[in-house]
Amino acid sequence: MGQINYAASKAGVIGLTQTAALELGRHGIRCNSVLPGFITTPMTQKVPQKVLDKVTGKIPMGHLGDPEDVADVVAFLASDDSRYITGASVEVTGGLFM
């Protein structure tokens, strides 16, 4: 499916997140990232149904995520409820990569 570039970019985001957290934590700045899996978006709607069915079969939650699932994690990380979380990369994948 041509995912090498996508996987490499996610690895870069994780490294950037951790480095920024190390460098900026002393200034009270938290740095976290969200790593969405297969979320129902225009991008995944272009994936052939046969491929989506195969992927969905590997997701423990049994379905693709919704954009709101990602938004909820972003809202949490941006809130004071996550005030002691930094350097984290949160996967929103329904358990796909366990």
TrEMBL record:
Keywords from the named record: Oxidoreductase
InterPro entries, per database record: NAD(P)-bd_dom_sf, SDR_fam
One of the Pfam families matching this protein, by short name: adh_short_C2
SUPFAM superfamilies per the UniProt record, alphabetical: NAD(P)-binding Rossmann-fold domains
GO molecular function: oxidoreductase activity
Family, as annotated: Belongs to the short-chain dehydrogenases/reductases (SDR) family.
Name this protein carries in UniProt: Hydroxysteroid 17-beta dehydrogenase 8
Organism: Rhinolophus ferrumequinum (Greater horseshoe bat)
Organism classification: Eukaryota, Metazoa, Chordata, Craniata, Vertebrata
